[in-house]
Amino acid sequence: MRAPKFTTVLLLVFPWLGCQEADKNWHQPDLPANYEILLQLECANESNNQGILDSAKAVILRRLASQHVYYRSIEMDGQQLRLNPIGREKEAANPSPNELRALTNMVRASGSLTFSELYHFPRKQFAEQLLPRLLKDSIGFSFSIMPPVTGFVALEEYPALVAWFQQPQNQAFLPAGVELALGQKSEQFYGRELFPVYFLKKSATPNLSEAHLKEIQIMPREGDDSFAVLTMRFDQKGTQLLTDLSTRAYEADQMEIAILLNDFVVSTPKVMTPIRGGNVSIDGGFSVAEGHAMLALLENGRLPCPVQLIESKIVER
Fold it and tell me: Nearest-CA neighbor of 144 among 174, 130, 123, 129?
């Protein structure tokens, strides 16, 4: 994974699309749908459930419009949202599993961007104390000797790893305020797809996030335009948060910081000097299509509550 470059760039402003405009342009109720996506919105403990559900629906409509996706219907039943997309073509003869996968990822993604300090677990302590306990408890985890990655885990085994660290007898192994995060890019190990695991420091102050974005743009990677670079400029508050975060990392022997998109670590640049300008470029090895999908998510807002996928399928006509 290439470390991102931190540069000063000229950016363009992209306005949000209104929900009514999204309905007007892309709602096609008389056309048959190619896909069905069923989501569970988890906001049961919130005092304003209906307002949160309406906000989540509006975010999803903006995302569909920004990606030029036609849809037949979008309906709420309690906290379940059923979406029937048509796709990017009104009359798609052969619905594509790849398009269904991309649409599902787009509508369920959190739309979040956060910057966080990394915690380097002492390698000797992890290898001698934690790894034997993980193996004894049959937790699938492959130890990494290359920081800042602590290890690798299969996607379906990650919840068990998180739950293991939350058990009272294992909590003592983690310092207070440290949590796990999963990397976005997987690697193949002996025929298995494994994802990198990081440890992040929870901040006592607000994290730098997409709420502080002022401008954002997709740029081609210098020397290889098949890859995309996300370039961003933060507002005054975000600029100060970035300066504070990078200064702490620099003073801690030039440590890395973690950059998360949709709650996954996409890059871990090493801080060689504090960043004071509020401008940043993220090169996480994204394809151009992936870069534009991320841009659409960040432009159209974070989902106001967690979302779980219940089902996504191609509709039989």
Answer: 123
